[in-house]
Amino acid sequence: MALTKTKRRNRIKSRVKKVISGTAERPRLSVFRSNKQIYAQLVDDVNATTLVAAGSTEKEIVSEEGNKSEKAAMVGKLIAKKAKDAGFEKVVFDRSGYLYHGRVKQLADAAREGGLKF
User: What is the DSSP string of 101-112?
Assistant: First the structure.
């Protein structure tokens, strides 16, 4: 029997989580993508805490015009700005089992433009 999309993504995610881990010095930039929204957060896996978070549901992004890809780029810039303000420059990118394409790629490219290194 074929895997569903979520089961397939969870398998990929568990394979990646074995290798990728965020620390207090170099947190993990985790991406979650739903059908309508996209969220990103910096996670310290050692202490199991979220350090910085941003999403397309934030006031400054909701008020802007644009399609989902453009909003993903805005989230990337916002997470980069928040991370820089919190003192983080280097991160480990975790695409959470999604293909590096479309909105996930837009978010990653915008985060790089905003000054994050990964």
Answer: STHHHHHHHHHH
Q: Report pLDDT digits (tens) over 32-70.
A: 999 999 999 999 999 999 999 999 999 999 999 999 999
SS3 117: strand
CATH code: domain of residue 101: 3.30.420.100
What is the model's pTM? 0.90
Per the CB < 8 A criterion, the answer to whether 96 and 13 are in contact is yes
Overall domain count for the chain: 1
Residue 102 lies in a domain: yes
Nearest to 42 by CA among 101, 11, 86: 86
Alpha-carbon distances of 26 from 20, 45, 50, 73, rounded to whole Å: 11, 10, 13, 22
